[in-house]
Amino acid sequence: REARMEGGEIVNFDKKVEVKAISRIEDFYEDPEFLGSGTYGKVYKYKSVADGRDYALKCIPLKGNSAEAIDEGRDIFNLIAHANIVYPVEVLQDEEHRFIVMELAEGGDLYDKILNAELEDEAAKSKVIKEVASALEHLHKRKIIHLDVKPENIVFSSLPGDKSEVKLCDFGVSRQLKDGERLNIYCGTVPYMAPEVIKQTNVGTEADMWSLGVVLYRMLHQDGNLPFHNEEASKSGQYAPLQLVSPEAADLVKGLLEVDPKERLSVEQVLQHPWIMTPGDLFHRPDNDGSLCAIVKKVDSSSREPATNEARK
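-> structure tokens emitted (313 positions)
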């Protein structure tokens, strides 16, 4: 794989991701270990027979899946190479499965870090959001919408020498827009869906920014709660106020969770926001007394339930 760094981005020179026909996956990768389920298929950890390194393999059954699902994301693979994105290494296919081979992010995902309260302060949380936003900026410049930004799809690399710790993964429902195109599409994970996705109208890159806002809210909430649990709550844009957070963090949440996509912060605005740009000591100022950030008006009691369902049409 020929690639180089340019302006903080990995520039990939591959022209096309080809599907390589094989007889048995065991001839190339061995010692499978189940990691979890992703869009359309299951994900396993495999060891490469060739170099002995561990990789993540997404196994998509050929039977029972649409042609679109089987060809998942292949058309945009060459556009997504970036330091904060889990990239595909190769694509293999036997008689029953297609295998998407990806770099293995061994540091776990953000979902577990939220549940285990591993991100102790706002400086650490700001770093996560900054790197996810960097990945989204790369995608949005290429008119690609991820459409399923959530903690389970934000992973951490622990490979030696890898400076980009936070990576965005799973492009199973991603779409690339044509110039001026807007989508009428319903996909993703309900608690993270933007109102326009729920309404299936006028969907653009702004939908990813709403999802990022939900992720940020959950990171900042003292119990890791979601701001919205169901579609009606998301469409209303009303959520419980955050406690013990800096005014800058509260302002960023507010800007991302704007119901009107035109009023929502863009990824460029997020990367220029004071909460992202300012050093960590901002979050421990004496004047930050932990008072409630009055950015919402109504408490949704159902927001304590975790996201479990992926709704797709």
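The CA atoms of residues 17 and 74 lie 7 Å apart.
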